[in-house]
Amino acid sequence: MEGEDDSRWSDWEESDGEGGQGSGAGRFLPLCVPSTSGAELFKTAAEALAHDASNNNFDVRRIVKELRVGFYDCMKLVNYVRESVAAGVLVTEASLVDGTDKAWMDDKYLIPFMENDSLLFELDGALGLDAESGDAEDPPAQSDSESTRVRALEEENEALRRAVQELRESLKVAGTFIDQADAPADRESASRLKNVRIDKNYFDSYAGFGIHREMLSDRPRMVAYRSAIELNASDLARGKDVLDVGCGTGILSMIAARAGARAVCAVDGSPAIAEAARAIVEENSLGSVVQVRGGLIEKEGTIPEGYKCDVIISEWMGYCLLYESMLFSVLHARDKYLRPGGCVMPDVARIHVAGCGEASVGSGFWDDVEGFSMRTVGKKLLERELRSQAHVVDVSGAWVNTSDAVVTEFDLCKVTADEVRSFSSEFELTQATGQGKIHALVVWFDTLFSARHCKTEEVVLTTGPREDKTHWAQTLLVLPEPVSALDREEALLCRMTFQQHSEDYRGLQIVLEYGTSRAKDGTYPHAAQFELV
Question: Is 206 helix (H, G, I), strand (E, B) or coil?
Fold first, then answer.
């Protein structure tokens, strides 16, 4: 879910106003100086870095030369030092150069630590990336082959300088780093930066307690997980090492501990909620069993080297099952930390679909408003607000007017990331006589704590429209045009394709192909694409 934008991403513009960042005022803050009102600002980036070298024994130019890093790594280094200095943590030149301190390499430091940090805009020139800076000494005499090689390097350096300059200018205009995936300088780093921002918004959205209260108040969710763990304690908890991926407030970890787990490792990517979970665990005197760790499960160091578990338990499901892409974290944990013969709980997930009548799209309301027709408004709302977007809504079972179909089923103990990332499925929907036109398809999911691993009692968590409501609700896909009511001999033939969103990897793109017939080449007469972002 989307979180608040970080204020450090806004206002990346240089001010020419009086007393601000005009050309006559110092605007470059040295790295080793905390950002305070009394800090001395320098007129050029080179002067600010020279101050660090002469007064703080921290020569950034020498560090960059020794580490042989590029533009994006220089950005990470600057932001890492800024953060460390603000926290009162000493960063030394020696620890960076000899590799003792590698924390700066984390992609999270692509996010600017300090708002309006002019130094980031001038890294190319200040650190010698600019071939026109004039700082380089005249080279000694060279052989013809050396001269040729040097000219080639100079041309390559000039191309890089131009690329960096283009990127820098685009950053000033756009006001953000996020939409720079097509920038000429280091597209891979720009793509990683985009994902860092997506992850930051995602985990920020889970840092507040409102969403956790909503999930903890979801009775079908809580009853299913508690029942599965407690009724099958001998299989899932007692004497077991349990890993809770995306632990949130730690509720599943504590249930597992209460059911007799030997040790529980609870991991959450939101530092704020991990800290809250740690406090909750201590509040319930379970600190000897449950250890909470903040950080991405995929990141080295979040989990101790050599760690193994018997059971992975996670409430990873998003809207339409796969929205938020948290399942990939669970699969990573399974492949890296689960012992042979261990299990992932829940261990089966199914996506279901059915057709819905006109009530599902709400257009009927506009047919008669105090005796007046407002169908024009209803039509515009459908065109502007519903189509092309997948909508998360509570769908009434009374709106469903076709049979159900299973789109796909995942065995979470075996499925691969690629099999989840993109897949297609064909299915048929039928109607009983008199059920009317099909205006939309509704998608929901079930997850199972199956008898394969829950030998005492199998438990099913369903989010279907005919069952008790959950915070996941259902996902509604409104058809471009309604499908006429089906005869007894007819079926609505469909192919549905799920794939990660091309711009936001935590989002979903769903392609629906459908019709009451199918061509010999396998194509369908109608198609629609939906996004869930």
Answer: coil
Torsion angle of alpha carbons 456, 243, 194, 124, nearest 10°? -170
Task: Domains for the chain: give ranges and CATH numbers.
Answer: 16-204 (no CATH), 210-315 (3.40.50.150), 348-532 (2.70.160.11)
CA 216 vs. chain centroid, Å, equals 22
Q: What is the pLDDT of residues 16-68, one digit of tens each?
A: 333 333 334 567 888 888 876 567 888 888 888 888 888 888 998 888 888 88
Report whether 78 contacts 31 (CB < 8 A): yes
Q: What is the pLDDT of residues 484-528, one digit of tens each?
A: 999 988 999 999 999 988 777 778 999 999 999 999 888 999 999
pTM above 0.70, yes or no: no
Judged on CB neighbours under 10 Å (0-12, 13-18, 19+), 137 is exposed
**Residue 114: Cβ-neighbour burial (10 angstroms; 0-12, 13-18, 19+):** middle
Residue 353 has φ and ψ, to the nearest 5°, of -145, 150
Q: Note whether 183 and 174 are within 8 A (CB).
A: no
Hey, CA dihedral for 64, 67, 70, 75, is it positive or negative? negative
Nearest residue to 171 (alpha-carbon basis) of 122, 102, 205, 114: 122
- Concatenate the DSSP letters of all residues of 330-390 into one string: HHHHHHHHEEEEEEEES-EEEEEEEEE-GGGTTGGGGG-BTTB--HHHHHHHIIIIITTB-
d(C-alpha 329, C-alpha 316), whole Å = 9
Q: Write down the residue that tokens 């131009």 correspond to.
A: 162
| DSSP 8-state code for residue 139 | P
Neighbouring CB atoms inside 10 A of 223's CB total 13
Phi, psi of 479 (to 5 degrees): -75, 145
Residue 131 CA to residue 43 CA, distance in Å, equals: 21
Tell me which residue of 208, 183, 206 sits closest to 194, measured CA to CA.
Answer: 183
Active site residues: 315, 324
Token code pair at residue 472:
């996941």
Q: Among candidates 379, 386, 486, which has minimal Cα distance to 437?
A: 486
Q: Which of 109, 37, 107 is nearest to 78 (CA)?
A: 109
